[in-house]
Design a protein that fits this description.
Length: 619
Amino acid sequence: MELRKRTVRRFVCRSVSLALLSNVMLLSVFPAAYAQSAPSQGSDKSAAAATKETAAPKASDGVASADSASKKEPDSAVIKAMQAELERSMAKLKHAAAAPLYFLSYSVYDVKNISMMGSYGALAYDQDDRSRRLYVELRVGDKKLDNTHQLRAHLQASPPLAFGHGSYGGGSFPLEDDADAIRTRLWDATDSAFKRAQVDYMKVKTNKDVRVEEEDASDDFSEATKQVHFEPPINVDIDRKAWADRLRKSSAIFKEYGEINDSSVNLSIEQARRYMVNSDGSMLEDNMKSLRITAEASAIAKDGMVVRLFDGIEATKPEELPSQETIDAMVRKLAKAVVDLRNAPPAQPFVGPAILNSKAAGVFFHEVLGHRVEGHRQKDESEGRTFAQKVGEQIMPPFMFVYDDPTRDTMGEKPLVGNYKFDDEGVPAQRVQLVDKGVLRGFLMGRSPIRNFAASNGHGRCTPGSAPVARQGNLIVDSSKRVPYAKLRAMLIQEAKAQHKPYGLVIDEISGGFTITQNYMPQSYSLLPLRVTRVYADGRPDELTRGVNIVGTPLSSLERILCAAKDDDTFNGRCGAESGWVPVSATSPSLLVKTIELEKEYKQQDQPPILPPPAIEGR
């Protein structure tokens, strides 16, 4: 048994459902009815090992879909091979075992990465890599009850819905477009998934017989319309030598700050081409890309606490990447902020009023609300299901609105990294109104239905090679009650006085956080602020502090919002969950909340470095 935690340091959501996983033991002996084998080359059937459901494929096997000739469709060698093997598998495996095969999907992600890092004026690394990742989703039974159905236990120890059951994910895949190699890999993965699905389906039926009736008896899978979409291949290319020089120059700026003990400036480019076919008839061939410049730096305070800050700039194409001057300005601002934070006094536990500045407010909503309105969590009986029965109820003040819109690619001039045209289940992305005038209206849905929400709204997402579940894309918070930021700050001081608090807080930015959604743990969240400033009620100068986390529970936290500012900003990051890491954004105005709770964070006990960095000694 293993605790799945979503944790990473830079520009991420660390949202945790803390799903307990069990390594399902698979039977190694299968009924003869579906242990048919493929003949080895040069041998007859009687000599073949009984390990595969269907014969290893040849490039000539299979027939193109009936309407492929009459429509403009994806027609690459990869798609053709995937479609041919899918048709062969559906035809020959449909009734090859006790539980009939009713759905099959293949997804292949061709992923290319470029990573460059400068540190203290030198190039630390310059590397690229390419891989192809395969995910096979295979379902037996029928849409009402199939092998993905949750196995319930006294202490939930089975994977979340549609995570692992009857699937094969994360495996390597041929880099070359060789039809025989591609189809053989698909054949092997399909065989493994089919056998596992048969075992899982038997477990599901037994589990239902010995457990109490489920609260949500929704089907296991929803219908989806056929989608055919093709995009020409892209290739993101940069001048590696020029960018190496930029990273050297920008990273050398940190040498001017002796208090900083670790720093870097990074260029990261990710591009992926997705190939997807399924038995609904959908066929997708499209692209995803991400370009970003990040800078990070850390220092050790005199009391041993490590303070670390980072900043970044997202782009959608190489020509939008920042200039040398822009990167240098970002680095200088970051370096000064790290030094200021290192010299700031440590904060103390506190309960009182606070302003969550816009980016911090976006992360707050991502953790507190966003993960709890992901559809599959509403019927998973190991989940807390905070909002499952609250559709139509007031969950926050009536001036608040929240929606998720993965169809948007920008907010003003800022790119939104959570955008996509089709989700990882082949469903078109859709705008979903989650909260309207403070009232909960809906959930983010993949193809796992829940009570009163029978269809996907295009939010089934995953990292390449993993099983998709409902996830956030571009979460957007709005308010009809807004004031200028200066007025919001004045309201903070008034609220601190009304509560007899010496100060209120301004949470400038949050690096990430985690939230616990399962019901055997407290339904709480923790956010990791980068900069916390005390705003004194008696007019004393503001005071920067360090070393605290924001903690709380969702229902009470959402009710405490008092007002919003006339500003909006976007947090772009990466969020980890059952289906892996996906790019997300969260956009919000700054928010004044009546009370927020701070707790002291873990502090290391190491002393700062004894000697100054060699680059600045003697200056």
